[in-house]
Design a protein that fits this description.
Layout: H1 3-10, E1 18-23, H2 38-41, H3 45-53, E2 55-60, H4 70-77, H5 89-96, E3 105-115, E4 121-123, H6 131-140, E5 150-157, E6 160-166, H7 197-214, E7 222-229, H8 237-241, E8 245-248, H9 252-260, E9 264-265, H10 272-281, E10 288-293, H11 295-301, H12 305-323, E11 329-333, E12 350-356, H13 369-373, E13 378-381, H14 385-392
Parallel strand pairs: 1-10, 1-11, 2-13, 8-9, 8-10
Antiparallel strand pairs: 2-12, 3-4, 3-6, 3-7, 5-6, 11-12
Helix pairs in contact: 5-9, 10-12, 11-12
Length: 401
């Protein structure tokens, strides 16, 4: 029996409410040996108070030592083994902006970048150009045409866009073209399997035409492609857990992932406060609520320790508004760690807090990496977090006689 088969056998229905608040890239590192992490540095009276009545731990997104992308990180939190269920970033981004992927589609997430006069990347995110500027650039790319295939280029947010190739025989096993570094040129699309050779060639032609169109842009004069993928097949939250699930997120990629597991996308919030407004407005319509907060990740990737601390403090301030709704289970965690010191995702376990009436106290007095490492949940696979949420919500029957 698989874990999902067991879940479907034991799931039960009641009126409990579960909130999963995901602070993207929450985990961090001290800047100096023996110092405090961003989470430990932040002034978080509300999270610290909840740590005193809840149970803490550290989740491992994929496997020890493996650095996850945002897709695998969230899949684990949602209870899907990221080694069994693989979702490319392109499919997430496309679905997140409402693009309906078909059976003959391969999508890739695009980043506009800035190239110097030698064709080397000087800024991987084109200065994080504002969305209105990016949308204008995307409009220019509508001129790209490839014989025998349809090409769709759609704006996402800031420097991000989506390209979808449509035609028979396409295969998503194509390597990323982002070298994850500056001072080097973008990589060529390369097939990771012989079956993807044609798709890689189509991607190369797209890049060639796009770069010619963009050559005079002041910032977005180049691009990289990541996460080539077709639409995956996943059991939905309702099928798996018996939960009516809602997703309240700002960034399209996270909306896309939530949509692919059957969550309903609620509202179009642009701020954390608006997300809580949406949560209150739809409280009676759903059983499970996924709230996503991006800026703990982006500040970490920028290497801005102080700003990540500030974003964590902003997150802490909204906790009382969530508590007003009296959820039966409240989870605060991240999909992975993004230490400012590393300016990237990392393999470090992620601080996790679970608050519910049947929680077993573990003596924690604050929410931070050190407390979580010694917390009652221990170090556990992120894919088991939903099992704990369901159990604390009273939504599991007993296994066996």
């Amino acid at each position: 029996m698989t874990e999902h088969e067991l879940i479907q056998e034991l799931k039960s229905t009641n009126s409990s409410k579960i909130i999963m608040l995901v602070a993207d890239g929450l985990g961090g590192l001290p800047l100096d040996p023996g110092g405090k992490t961003e989470l430990e540095t932040a002034v978080t009276p509300n999270l610290d108070r909840l740590a005193g009545i809840g149970t803490s731990g550290s989740s491992i997104p994929v496997l020890p030592g493996i650095t996850p992308g945002s897709g695998p990180g969230h899949l684990g939190l949602f209870g899907y083994d990221p080694l069994e269920f693989k979702i490319g970033r392109g499919a997430l981004e496309a679905t997140g902006i409402g693009f309906e992927l078909g059976p003959h589609d391969v999508a890739a997430r695009g980043n506009f970048c800035t190239l110097d006069t030698n064709g080397l990347i000087s800024d991987r995110r084109a200065g994080r150009i504002p969305s209105e500027e990016s949308f204008h650039v995307v409009e220019k790319l509508q001129a790209v045409a490839i014989d025998g295939y349809e090409v769709f280029v759609k704006p996402v947010k800031e420097h991000r866009f989506v390209v979808v190739f449509r035609g028979t025989g396409l295969d998503g096993r194509v390597a990323d073209t982002d070298p994850q570094a500056t001072g080097v040129p973008p990589l060529d699309p390369q097939p990771l399997d012989p079956a993807a050779a044609e798709t890689a060639d189509i991607a190369k032609e797209f890049v060639r035409q796009a770069c010619e169109i963009l050559k005079d842009e002041p910032k977005a004069n180049g691009l990289t492609l990541r996460g080539f993928a077709a639409k995956p097949a996943l059991p939905t939250y309702e099928e798996l857990y018996g939960l009516r699930a809602a997703a309240i997120a700002v960034y399209p990629m996270y909306k896309g992932l939530a949509s692919l597991v059957g969550m309903k996308l609620v509202g179009t919030p642009q701020t954390l406060g608006e997300q809580i407004d949406e949560l209150k407005a739809c409280w009676n319509d759903y059983d499970f609520f996924f709230l996503h907060f991006k800026y703990t990740d982006s500040t970490g990737e920028d290497g801005n320790f102080a700003n990540k601390v500030k974003q964590i403090e902003e997150l802490d301030k909204i906790i009382p508004r969530i508590e007003e709704l009296k959820p039966d289970v409240l989870i605060v965690t991240g999909d992975h760690s993004t230490p400012s010191k590393l300016k990237s995702h990392s393999w470090h376990p992620v601080p996790t807090l679970l608050v519910a009436d049947p929680c077993r106290p573990d003596g924690a007095t604050a929410f931070g990496e050190r407390n979580c490492l010694s917390g009652g949940l221990g170090q556990f696979p992120a894919k088991h977090l939903m099992l704990l949420a369901m159990a604390h919500a009273g939504r599991f029957g007993k296994y066996g006689a």
